[in-house]
Fold:
Amino acid sequence: MSATPSLLATETEDDLRAAVRSLLTTHSAADRVLARAESGAPYDRELWKTLTGSMGLAGLLVPEADGGQGAGHREAAVVVEELGRAVASVPYLTGAVVTPATLLALPERTAEVSALLAEVAAGSTVAVLAVPLTTAPGDPLPEVTTDGGGLHGTVRSVADAAGADVLLVAADSGLYAVPAGAPGVTVTPLTALDLTRPLAAVQLDGARGTLLAPAADAAPAVRAGLLSGAGLLASEQLGLAEWCLTETVRHLKDRHQFNRPLGSFQALKHRLAQLWLDVAGIRPAATAAADLLATGEGGPAEAQLAVAVAQVYASPVAVRAAEEALQLHGGIGMTWEHPVHLYLKRAKGDSVAFGGAGRHGQEVARLAELPAP
Amino acid sequence: MTDADDLRARTRALLADRPPATTSRADFLAARFDAGLAWVHYPEGLGGLGAARSLQSAVDAELAAAGAPDNDPRRIGIGLGMAAPTILAYGTEEQKRRFLRPLWLGEEVWCQLFSEPGAGSDLAALSTRAVLGDDGVWTVTGQKVWTSSAHLARWAILIARTDPAQPKHRGITYFLCDMTDPGVEVRPLRQITGEAEFNEVFLTDVRIPDAHRLGEVGEGWQVARTTLMNERVSIGGSTGGRESGMIAPLARTWRERPELRTHALHQRLVTLWVDAEVARLTGERLRQQLAVGQPGPEGSGLKLSFARLNQQISGLEVELLGDEGLLYDDWTMRRPELVDFTGRGPGYRYLRSKGNSIEGGTSEVLLNIVAERVLGLPTEPRTDKDVAWKDLAR
Structure:
């Protein structure tokens, strides 16, 4: 029997949302996001400091005893949603969701793990998992070998690696924390479709790191980290899609052609109503995923299914919301100056992140016992 | 104000006074009505106690747990859901006393004479005429359509045009119509499924005493809005768990018949399964919102979602079944009291679900409503508002 997640926001979550939204409205306006992308800076360091320093948001998933806030996936999902709404450029989904979720899933809390976890929770260290952004939970990981204590391998398209302090590397001999500036580490920024989530190739030529866990423990922990990432990605997609819908409705109320508001044309009203309906479905799907990741109610398969459902549903809807926003904004939507392209690029990038709808559809088929031919 | 403890005490007193095991159904229901436990938010003397509406479910649960009979609410849904709240809101004391008790007890079934062949989405354009005679009796002539339960009903709620010179919303009056009047003719309306859930109702010089008018002359549209707001929007999906709706027979066939599977069908199956699960979660979220008294706008969209899902899922089921999908279970003209999606074959599900995007508000009208009321977009231009009904194009 399926678990019944709580699908309403708590008062704490509402307060958190208001605080984050207010901060992002002033500190991550669209022109600033675009300026950051053009500057070549890997992320908005000032915004990151505010989010993680005074607000402590990097530690939401981390228990208080480990230096975090002792909140959970539901609260982190609220932050991710608001960051999506602002298409903000900070390594939150990677550094404050996937990384701590991976470390917390390790069966043994060694001194090295605890130390890294505390730094990650404080936001003073940005640590990202060195796997391609497209990796789905449970997918095979890139091949990194160990030779005389040094790590060797190449990992393509790692999100937020360019600004990271530490790379979490799953090698054949275990999970390592490798300082990004260590000898033998080359991080090469790539020109990404999504201007607001930088990608980089990571090359390891005999780099040395701190062993965090043996290989047998690394794979399940990485899988758990990616599952959290994929689940909360749906909240990011919700934020993106809601922004696109809201801005498009606003535009169609303001913009007049043929002596009437564009939003008075029934062809456009129906498109927006249908889009609202589809976007409204992301919220319960994303909340269910975050809730079941937090509670574990019904066992791990329930959370896995909720995440897969959320991804299969949210990915195409978020892309369509951005595509509709661009089309319905008309010419202004095609300009570099208007922010809608930032949302389209993020939404399209998100649709292949953590496996994309196709890979998660296979998970749904497996978990719901609807086998392929 | 009657509170939960008081209601519990009254419920237990009713059960002690009329033990369900030794009381006839009719006696029990009558005693329940007279104890004010029928619909607790109704006034005293009319089956209620003036209590909060939210307290009803505890009474129902306690009575059901004690094995008490209910009034078969699905059979008399139109009376309970539409006629009763309208009579309560607009009826005279005599009308309330005359009609509400037999309605709730199920002794008198009600139907709704609103839609017409020429007035579907544009209901206010209706053309059934009612003319008041010198004897204080109205004479009604016209045709109504898509009337559930008309062949079983003793009474109908009816809207008719009483002043064609007024703009369409202003010249309508609301009546309670005796279905046994010799001028009422009910004919089954056969649907594409082969059966007839609904009726056409022909009204020829039907006589309705002015005492059976509900609300003022010419104010029938406002009265009808009360009825329509109380119309329980059937969301088409169950409130059950995962895979409890139209997706269930499709998923079962997929699991049991591996020889039917293809990759193209699999893609569509998984997508629809996910859409059905998201619609279920949307409904669950709405239920959780209602439980804390904070309904969101998502309810406006659920009927749209379920109409599309039911149609696409049943369409896929017909294709998946291949040879068997070419067959139909039974074209016999029947008169079912309730729609039974799961008791019939996939062809029936495919055909019947076509009505889901038409009945109770077409998907096109519902999209307008979402656009205007949820998104705040401009309303459709109206060229009919200030024109006399008789001068409208038709």
